[in-house]
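User: What would this chain look like folded?
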Amino acid sequence: MSKRANPAAVGAFVLAALALVVVGIVVLGGLQLFKKEWPFVMFFEGSLTGLDEGSPVVIRGVKIGTVSRIRLFATQPGHEPLIGVYVNIDPSLLPKGGEVHGEKRDLAIADLIKQGLRAQLQTQSLLTGQLLVYLDFFPNNPAVFARRDPTVQEIPTIPTTLARLQARLEALLDTIGKVNLNELTVAMTEALRSTRALVNSPEVKSAIVSANETLKSADVALKNADHVIKGLDTKIDTLSAQADATLGDVRRLIGDVQKTVARLDAQIEPLSASIQGAGDSARQTLRSVDKAVDGDSPLGYELVRALRDVADAARSLKALADYLERHPDSLLRGKGGPESK
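Assistant: Here's the prediction, encoded as structure tokens.
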């Protein structure tokens, strides 16, 4: 008879197996099963060769999601079909950080789109030709929405650099294609004929001959100018030597003048002293005369009295002159004559 299994051992084994499964999921899956991602759609034109499901979605070099599926949308006749690229993005890796839930998600993405968030295809590897979805801010590019799938929020796209270059080349080729090559060829032929006729015309030949003569005259003038310049150099050297000699004479003259001035200075000092001594003697003489004629001195008293006598004699002479002027005949008859009575 077989032994019955222990329920506790079976339960422990089952729990251990479940724990191993959970650990394996965590280790091998990196918690990808529990990570919440946001779906978005982007619409591109042209070929998407090299972009597959699972291709990375990066923003400035940081991987934030992957491509989930690619779908082709029909358009109006005459237009290229649109290709919808559906991606899943980790919201915690979006700019500004932090996970947004519910209705705030649409508002957060709309705010990023207003700031210039755009999607663009770029080459992931030049060797394999694989593409990736590149997100970045291009505020100068307007947001253009295709609005072909309203169930998923759309991120506007911009063409790649290669696509824009290709569009410009196509526009240039279209412009060239619109040019009438026959008219252009005829115009160029006429222009060449006119140029040939102008070059072979007598006027142009005469102008070329005149220009040649003018160049020869200019050459002769330059040679003459060279000779004149050389002669001027010689004269300038002579004038420079004469100027140096003149400067030497001027320097010697200045030296002689300085010596003469020095001798005059030596003679002026004694002369100045003599003049100063004569002035002192004259001042002393004047002081002596002033003292001599002073009224308090005897000489001064005598001089004053002599001056008074001279003044009295002068008054007497004046009175006599007045009398003789009134009586001129008094010199003959005398002062006591009959008419004087």
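The CA atoms of residues 160 and 166 lie 10 Å apart. If you want, I can go into more detail on any region.
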